[in-house]
Amino acid sequence: MAEATEYPVKFNVGGATKLVGSEMNISRSIEIGKDIEANLDKGRINGKDDEKWASWLVRDMKEFDDINDPKLRMKIRLLARRSDISVNSDYLMKIHDEIDKMIEEGLDLGEAALWMERIEQRQELLVANERNTPSVVTVAHDREKIPARDQPLYLGAVFKNGQNEPYLVSPELVVRLDPEKQSDRRKFVFRNLYAFNSLYLKNARMNAGWLSATLNYETDLHVAKEKGARITNTELESSNEFLRASMAVTASARAMEISGGAFEDYAKILTGSNEKGSPNIGWQDENDAYLLHADPNKIINLLNDPLIRKYYDRLMEDLGIEQNGESEWHGDKNQTPRKITIHSDKINMNANGVIHFVKDEARQGGLDAYIDKVLVKEVRTAEMDTRVTRAAAKLACDIFLVDKWTEYVDIVNKSDLHNKPSKLQPIPKGWGGDPFDFVIHPTGLQRLKSVYKNSASIVLDMLDSAFRPTDIYNVIKELYEEKEGKDLPPNIRLPIASAVTNIKILNRQSQMINKITGGPMAQNLSLWSGPALNDLLEAERLCAQVLGTQEVDGEIGRDIAGAQIIRILEAKILASTLETKPPDKGDALKIVFDPESKTRPLYEARSFLLGPEFNYKQGHLQALQGGDISFTIADNPFAEDNYNDLIKMLRSNDQSGQLDAKTLQRIGSMIRMGNSIANALGLVGSR
């Protein structure tokens, strides 16, 4: 047998760098002294302020002084100064997990790696003492193979001399690759993606493990370089960018599949929860390198790979989606909106087309079946590794899922295709809905619950025109291009139903809809007091953050957001009126003799919006035009008719409890006209 090398055994606590279980089928030689207690290094060194620090953690003060992160410095100092007797294996595991959490929150992995490794080694030594089990194993260089069942589920390949290589070698799943070869670095990403998608997710259902896996993969290549692999810094960063892009698309795709159609749940899967139980959206600022949202370059990076591109081109061909210079993202975070153009006569409706697999609630197996039965069989490639080809094909489908699926389904559903496919979904089981659908269909959930149905659906139509004012953006586009002779700036656009859109924008839009409606049954819409009123005020602040920040000559955002708020208020008044019963005879007499009777249906709304004296000077409409929000309300060029209708309804105070037919008809015509203009100009279903 070849010369053996000793490696400390690592332990499994579910994080990014914890690598093996307790039972491994490998050759061992056990080195245990007669007195295991002697294995515990109780030496101390001189630390800060004459403190005695544990030498197993800090070996010289320069190591400590080189720590840049203040939180990590504090944690290491507190641990180092504790007496050995107060530091057991459970406590070390707790500290290790806290540092792991700090990495997820933005701590540099390279800075944390040294301290995590020493804590792991110390914890293993303590466990060996506590359980009377080996603390050191000797692994021969021509060692036996570890069965695949003993591997961490998200590992499908390791690098020679990487952090995982001494422990993880299996002919069944894990292969050993050369970090110096670009082809092997690329294969490393694909094989690990295959393992992540086929094994890890089936067992762990995400649980934030996507980030731990990504950090593990990154570290493997970094360690291989540190141990002598001849990789330039440019090659290292290029490989890691491809890895991060692949995992970012994969994470968003899997989050879509298991979100149940709720954007809030989708966001929590990716970012975790804050102390209030809401998505930790600020996480994007600290970890944008790992998240697809707000970074179209990740998709561009992947589509530059020839294998992914080949599968993607076939997918687009089957879907009938036109590909040209304007059909993809083009590189920076403020992309020019583009339209998804579908040629209905080119959609492959046959048994080898993707539509066949995703129609009828994916009864034929969804995108995975399309990958197995069509893409990897019909698209010819020189790659012989089936795990690589399937991972590349799945990435191609995931790019479509996260970036185009929502809009594509919307366009197909609205089309007049012959034998139009129904109930499209990407997976056959567990698909609870599309978490991005709310962007295109703001009141889709309320319509599903049959709230405000038949003629009362005008309330939801008005809300849709508020949350997605396509008519306004088309007018802006036409006027700007006519005046300036160039394209509208890319920052003037509606939120896009894509995982490339900034997750903060999507979250604010989702929150705004939820606060105005109050939920699936739209219980907030007709209310003008209590929690519903507080939600209205919060929604207005969110509106300022979503649409109010868009600028052309410094004014356009105030106009757009003001028009949106006017339409929201008009929808609330419509809801209040339609839900109010006509007054009985007693109330009618009061109204006759007391025109300002508080029994009138819209008294609360009128008092709130126009002020208690109904003089426009103290009401909410006046307040919206100043302060931090500063919307354009009166004389708004995009909402003049809406504003006039709003004031007319408030002035009348609606004594009957029902709007007159002419007003309803005119409002309905206005909404339909706006939608028809938007459709004619091509913004609906566009990017």
Structure description:
There is one protein chain. 51% of the residues lie in helices and 3% in strands. It has helices at residues 61-65, 70-81, 89-104, 109-131, 182-204, 209-226, 233-258, 263-271, 283-286, 297-303, 306-319, 354-362, 366-378, 386-403, 405-414, 437-440, 444-448, 458-467, 470-484, 503-517, 531-546, 556-579, 585-593, 603-610, 620-623, 640-652, 661-681, and strands spanning 4-8, 44-46, 52-54, 136-140, 157-159, 175-177. The strands form three sheets. Strands 1-4 form a two-stranded antiparallel ribbon. Strands 2-3 form a two-stranded antiparallel sheet. A two-stranded parallel ribbon has the order 5-6. A hairpin with a 5-residue loop joins strand 2 and strand 3.
Which features does this protein show?
mainly alpha; 6 strands; two-stranded antiparallel ribbon; disordered C terminus; 51% helix; two-stranded antiparallel sheet; 687 residues
Q: What's the Cα radius of gyration?
A: 30 Å
Give a count of the beta strands, DSSP E runs of length 2 or more: 6
Helix content: 40-55%
Spatial separation of the terminal alpha carbons? 63 Å
Low-confidence stretches: 1-39, 131-149, 587-595, 654-658, 675-687
